[in-house]
Design brief:
Helix content is 77%, strand content 0%. The chain has 183 residues and is mainly alpha-helical.
């Protein structure tokens, strides 16, 4: 697979996006206590079977919505990065730039979920019940996303480091905007 192949970044992009989507239901397992409290608040005298069914339905619905939200974020960030790459005069196809930037965003999301999960397991962090909240928070880790996007753009679009950094601001801004949406 050479550097100029149209399929060079598409397969890893698809795998990383699928990985990010599949990690969200696992991260939502940390919200089972919240779901249980929500069901008990709405139906205080729920029998145990109905309580389990309500918690399961809430977990399934939340997992689907979070996975779709991650997919939309990855797609929009990739498109934003590709648009700015075009504007900066990058040679090559729009799809290749979109998939490269989307790959960087998807790997960032996977890495953030994994780091939060592993640290909460290793250190017994009391914040382990808020992994989903922390994944969707605007924090200094967005700087890592900007660096990852700049490296991806530099490699695929063959732009200078200054233009690559400029192109990396668009997907980072999209991710920051998604983080500011209230839950």
């Amino acid at each position: 697979m050479d550097k100029f192949s149209m399929t060079g970044t598409r397969r890893p992009f698809r795998l990383a996006a699928a990985g990010a989507m599949l990690l969200m239901p696992l991260a939502n397992l940390t919200l089972l206590g919240r779901y249980r409290d929500g069901v008990l608040e709405r139906v205080p005298d729920a029998p145990p079977g109905a309580l389990k069914a309500g918690v399961g339905a809430a977990w399934l619905f939340g997992s689907v919505l979070n996975a779709l939200g991650v997919l939309v974020l990855i797609f929009l960030a990739g498109v934003a990065g590709a648009v700015v790459c075009r504007w900066a005069g990058a040679p090559g196809g729009f799809a290749r730039h979109r998939s490269a930037v989307g790959l960087a965003v998807a790997l960032f999301m996977v890495g953030k979920v994994l780091v939060l999960a592993v640290t909460s397991l290793l250190f017994g962090s009391p914040a382990s019940d808020r992994i989903v909240d922390q994944v969707g928070a605007a924090d200094p880790s967005l700087l890592l996303l900007a660096v990852g996007c700049a490296v991806a753009v530099r490699r695929v679009a063959e732009l200078s480091w200054q233009r690559s950094a400029l192109c990396a601001l668009a997907p980072t801004a999209v991710c920051a905007a998604f983080c500011l949406i209230p839950a």
